[in-house]
Amino acid sequence: MNRVITFFKTYWLEILVFATVFALYIIDLNPSFTFMNKAADSMGYIYSAKYLYPSYQTSPPLFLLLGHLFLMLPVATEAWRMAFMSLLASMGTCVFVYLIVKKITVNRLYALLAVMIFGFAAIVVSTTSIVETYPLVTMFATGALYFALCKKWKTMAAMLGAGAAVHMLGVIAVIIFFVGFKEYRKSWKVWGITLLFALFYLYIPITNLHAPAMWAPKSMTGVIGIASSVYATVITLIGGISIWDLPKRIFDIAGVVGVSIGVVSIIPIISYFIYRSKEVGKKYKYYKDVLFWLSVMPIFFAVSSLDMNMFDYTFMAMPYLAILAAVGLKKMYDNWNSVYVGEFVAILLVAVVGLGCFNGYYFNIGTTEDPQMSANEFYYTELPKLPSDAIFMPVYGWNWEATYLYNKDKGEHIYPILMPLLTVPAYRDQLIADGIKMTVIVSKQNDSNAEFAMARSIIQDNSNVWTTVEPNPNTFMATIVPANGDTSLVPTVDAAVVAKDKVNPGWRWMPYNPYNIMTTAIYISDWKNIIYSNYNVQTMIMLGVIGGVPCWITMELWKDNKKKKNKNKIKVVSKTNEHN
Fold this sequence. Notes:
Layout: H1 2-10, H2 12-28, H3 42-51, H4 61-70, H5 78-105, H6 108-119, H7 122-128, H8 134-149, H9 153-166, H10 169-180, H11 182-185, H12 188-196, H13 203-207, H14 223-237, H15 246-260, H16 266-280, H17 290-304, H18 318-335, H19 338-362, H20 365-369, H21 374-382, E1 391-392, H22 398-410, E2 415-416, H23 425-433, H24 448-461, E3 465-472, E4 477-482, H25 495-503, H26 514-518, H27 523-529, H28 537-579
Parallel strand pairs: 1-2, 1-3
Antiparallel strand pairs: 3-4
Helix pairs in contact: 2-5, 2-6, 3-4, 3-22, 4-5, 5-6, 5-8, 5-18, 6-18, 6-19, 8-9, 8-10, 9-10, 9-12, 10-17, 15-17, 16-18, 17-18, 18-19
């Protein structure tokens, strides 16, 4: 009993901070199905975890297996149970953030401040409240950093492997750690532990043996099909954004990151690199700092992704930005007048706690964001309208995922069609083979004109087709209606506007409200405005590599040649001096 009392007396502040963060998360946790905060993925994840099917092209195997266990909890709804895994993962990240900062600064107060910066961050609160992979992969990546600092390389390797088995962002962490820590890359036993976790990806071909082709055509479910599908997904998600949309995306993601870390945290983050450079001297290069890359790379991928919905990649940067802010603040204290630093800490605390209170209120799905629980309404009220063997072609894809879960749960045979995949030849072939009549239009992928034209032909040429109307797109609310040959239910694209955008789109600058981005309230309208262009980030990087690498090699050769000449001059001078 005395030990318990002593523990509470010693760590009362830690208990208070962690309990507050936990309470905020548990209050905001989605009570049931929702589409908000990127939770449109949740029904697909629940379906895949519940019935052990693959999810998406890259499929997060470890996430789905753990989700299967959480779905067995005898409490609340399925959505709540699996989201509870996100909550525990974020709490785990808080623990690692605390341990890392305390180890670096040897000060618990800075460690607790880091926990608050991360735990109250807008993107963290919004994503922790739903069924998503990012909290879990972030916990493993942050844990890997802690064990690296403790020089426990095998445990670090296991954490990295587990993260990579949860989400492909974990692979980015593996690469950063491989380059940043020589102890990792020089021991085949250590990085071999990480590679062992690749065995989890056998989940995809094994479960594909009996799984319906939810995320890809049946012809793409073999080894080659899966590989090509993964490649296409990666190319779309990394660097696919047009350079015309890039300025606006930079401002949009900067807004998400800025409000998440409390804005004023930027000052100690910059201070970290300044004082670190002074401590180490000329040998220190910020671009060789592991913390720099762990903070920057997730944000880079969010900026360059074609899909605006990848804003949640920034989640993985949050713990490292919180660590930088806390450690940078300690360095400010050591180098500045302590009175000024104390005033700054007070301002930072007010900003972090104030934003935490606001975020807790704003992202409360069941009370503030989506009190109607539109996804729950769709699943339990709208989908039962569909007769068995109906052809269901929703205007937007999230309702399509819910249909697979509904079919399996209720034993129905509704045939879901995803409109955006109509421009994929393999998917069209599958539909035709399954008896769906349609007019095929050969076009490039992501061609909205062709997609909508083929969708209208399906409505015209088939009976028993149902679709959706959106009474409230900001919450993805959808009402199911019979198509009855009415092609006006399918959106139209002004070809003249699209052509004009592709030829001379003009730069886009005005950012969105970052909170509207994180709730995905503007996702539908934003997706319509995305420009598909060959002038994208991938192209610019490729051109930069093609043009820059030869120039860099030439410069390095020139430097080496100059050094050799200087050495020869020194030798000649020294020999002359010896002779004299």
